[in-house]
Each structure stands twice: as structure tokens, then as C-alpha cells.
Amino acid sequence: MMNKKYFLASILFAVFLGGGIALGSHQLLIMQQRQTPVQHKPNTPQPPIQLTSLVAVEKQTETPSLIQAAQIATPAVVHIKASYEAKVMQAPRSNTPLDQLFRDFFGEGFDSGPREYKSQPQYATGSGVIITAEGYIVTNNHVIDEADQIEVMLDDNRKYNAQLVGQDPNTDLALLKIKEKDLPYLQFGNSDTLQVGEWVLAVGNPFNLTSTVTKGIVSAKARAIEIPQSKNQMRIEAFIQTDAAVNRGNSGGALVNLKGELVGINTAIASNTGNFTGYSFAIPTSIVKKITDDLKKYGTVQRAMLGISIRDVDADLAEKEGLKKLSGVYIAGVGKKGAAAEAGLQVGDVIVAVNGNKIKNTSQLQEQIARYKPNDKVRVTFYRKDQEKTVTVTLKSIEEKMPMVRTQNTVELGGATFENVDQAVLKQLNLKGGVRIKALKAGLWKQAALQQGFVITTIDKEPVENLDKLCNILNRKTGIVVIGGCDKNGTKIYRAVDLDNQ
Predict the structure, then answer these.
(1) What is the residue-averaged pLDDT of the chain?
(2) Considering its fold, how many domains does the chain have in total?
(3) Percent helix, strand, coil in the chain (nearest 5)?
(4) Where in the sequence is the domain holding 464, given as residue range(s)?
């Protein structure tokens, strides 16, 4: 009986096992049949692989943006070559014991004075950005400062001699002009809306390698790096810090966002070697646009001042002064006749906003004020003894210097109104260029015995061909200068004018 049951169970098990094998084979066959068309029909999509799909999506969203921004920016970035002519210099008189022996023998006429020799011509290179179709170009002041000739090469290799419209050492910016029309140019973007971590491109000419594009992210904003400055400079630093590779020759080039808009002018790197080591710094367009607009319109920068000395709020200062917040700008001094004093600001106040824009440090305050010109009104929010207050401040000119007012056809300065001399008068006076005193009232020009109708042709021997050159020279000069020119009869006259005599 047991053997029969065992026998029946064995048969049933075999039947089920056979059926399972058959069913499994059938399913395997179905899977192979399903897979076979995929292998032999290239038009049928492969089953998606998640990791590859994600990488592909990233590349599709990122790469076209970088490419588009580079294509927009590259044609508008130029290569600049600043040339410095050979200078006549004097070698000091040698005074070795052997020289003295020869003098004792041959007399003092031997090597009796310094000897003249010529230095070798030099040049510097950098980058620039075309900002109008009419050929206005912004660059760094240190790229072209004191150059005898400035050559600009476009992305398509066309070359031009550039005219210096104006320069501002305080922000390290300069404005150039070339005679051309319908040029590719960059639109100004809003550097205020840049976010830390946002992608940016640096476009320039490092090591004379034209049209070089590098990418990076915004690492920080309103960064001060304390670039060395001359005694008379008031350096304004509120840099955009990025990790886009910038090297020698990139100075004056473009920092653009992914829309291809200009958001900064590349200016400096943090390096012990002179080459890129991880950080670069750009002047934000919030400052660039104001400076270039001023240089284009006036030939000089209309710089406004609060009239205060400031410092960042840190832990030591907060403990010393009993401040509750480690943010803002502490007023350490107030000028007696400055804009801040007239508005009621005091030593010990902590500025936290200008026109609603938050202020965390001195660089941000400098950036905000640098946007305005004298007589503009700004709302300054500050804390005084833990109470928040807001006052309206009417900004004043830096150091109350003599204002220069420029219109389309005239320049007013120190009681005189100047205009360009028309071609007929230039031909009559046998002059190549000049600027005429159109109107004259009490001021430094009248004190120098200059008269209405006088044509200025030189200032300290520098040619003055037109109003642009007049503004450029006067923007750089201080103290007593020698004015050369002629009266309406063509008589040559020279006068000394004290530009500091207000």
C-alpha cells in the first residue's frame, strides 16, 4: 500500500516538475523573443538606464547655456596693446676713486655731468569690452595708464588706434573709443542679482591668447582685497570673487552671466606667483556702468561722498562699543561740513542699509555710494543705541573739489565755459585743434588773465585738440599748470593756472 502511494506521489511530482520546466522554458522563450527585436532594430529605443539619463539631462540644460553665453561675449571682447615710447633718461655722474683720479689728472671736464641715454620701448597687454556699437570700450586703468599709444584688436583681427576718453584710478577703470560703427557689444547685466554659486564666464586674452573663455562660479560678493594704491587715491573695492581662471592679460576682460550679459570687469587675482591659483576678482557692473557713463558724458567721474570714516563691525568692536549685532558699518568719524553731518549722522552710528539695500560691511557701503553723483539723495538706515533710524542724506562732491559740468557741446569749469573750435577758425588761426573759452566769469581762469575767445591748444605741453582731451587732462592734473594757446588774433600766449585755487 505504501509502495502504491509512493509511486503515485512520484508520478505527480514528475508531472508538476515537467510542467514547471515547460512553463519556464516558455517564459524564457517569450523574453528572448521580446529582446531579439530590440537587438536587431536600431530604431527601437533601449530600456532606460537611470544614471545615464540623469547625466544626459544635466548636459542638455548646462552646455547650451555656456555655449550661448560664450558666443555672445567673445566677439565683444578685444585685445589691448599699450605702448610706451623710449624715454630719454640721465645716468648719474660716476664717482668711483678711479673716476676721481682721472678728474685730478685731466680736470673736472672729465665725466663732468650726467649722461643721457634712451630706455627701450615697452608695451603692456590686456583686454577690453565693447559696450556700445559706436566703439566705446571699457578696460582696467592699469592696462593703459600713461601709455603713449593704445592699440585695439577685435576678435576678427581688425586693428584700431584707440582714444583715451577718461580714466578713474580709484576704481581702476578707463574708457576708450575707436572710430567704427555697428560693432558687436555686450549689454550690461545686473550684478546685484548675482548669487553665490551662480555660473559665470571669464572672457579675455591671457598670455596674448586671444578670445579665451573660462568658467567658474561666484564665490563671494563685495570683497575687498586691499590692492596697493598711491597716496592720492581713494580705492573703492567691492569685487565679485569667482573661481573662473584669470591670468595676466585677462585684466579688463568680461565677466558674463549665462545670458551673455556683462556683470563685471575682470581685474585681479589672488596669487603669490602672478598666475591663477584659484580666485579672481571682477569690478561689478553696478560700479562699471556709473563710471563709464560719467567718463562718456563729463570726461571725469562725478563722485559723491557721505563724509565719514568707517570700519567693519567685528567682535572686538561690538564688545567695546556694546553693539548687539556683528553686521553693518560703524561710523568712526564724521566730517564737519560733510553730507552725513548735515543729515545728523554721528560717531557710533551703525549703517545697515542704503535705499533699502542691506549693508553688511564697508565694501558694500562703498559699492552703494559709488553709484551716485553729488547732490543725489539717498536714504541711510542705521542703528543708534539699538534703535533703528532712517535719514535722507544729500551727497556731496569728494573733498568739495571744483565741479566739472559737461553738456553735449560745452564744458563748464572754474567760471569758464569751453567749446570746440570749428574748422573755419582752426584754418584761420593755422591750428590743428583746440578748445575756445566761450564765456568767462569770476574764477580761476579769469584770475590767470585769460579772456573770452582764447583758444587753448596745450596744457603742460600736452595737446588739447577737443573737449574730450581737455576733460581728460584736467581730470588728471592738480596744482599749477601751464596753459598754451592764442587769442582771436593768433597771438601766442602762455598762462599759469592754479587748479587747486577754488
Answers:
(1) 80
(2) 3
(3) 30, 35, 40
(4) 404-498
